[in-house]
Amino acid sequence: MEIAQTKLKKNQLFSFYKILEKRYGDDLKLYVSEMVFEKKSYVYQPPIIDKYLYEVVRGAVKLGAYTENGEEYIYDVLSAGEFFGNLDYLGGQFVEFSKAMIDVEIRIYDLDFFKREIKNDPDIAEWFFGYLTKRWCMAETKLFKVNEKSIEAKLSFLKKLYSQDAIDNHGVSFNVYELLTQKDKGDLVGATRQTIASTLKK
To answer: What span, in angstroms and rounded, lies between the C-alpha atoms of 23 and 14?
Structure first.
């Protein structure tokens, strides 16, 4: 138990970017850049499939895809310290979009560089696999909650999950849960916008 807690604490304190800064110095600019995306703008969307991986430095983003009718729906929300993008393991079937919920600062990693660092450094590999496992575990938890019968229970879980502060690129703090629209909430818990609206009115 003590060993597991030590590893968890180590992963929480781990800074991939700081390690790269120390290792590469000014040459890191050849592989990593930073950009600001305004609220509601896309970081990326199909049909563009790029060769980058992204890290939220400040702000929050929605990740989603499209229905057969071409309508957007979201399945995840990420804030500072989270990574997202195309790892290029899906054989060209990556169709995700990413949209800024507030003005966000995004760190952009060259994908080949990112993968090479993970493959060549055991400490970085351990951190990244731990991070992916955490995301996978959270996805399973959300899937389980979607199958709850009570909409109230689903929304309560959603509020607990996303009631955290996200600071935008101007230093203004927002509550992530409050940034979610009724449609967003419906997408995340498997309900219609109308059902969410009527439940919230009770």
So the answer is: 15
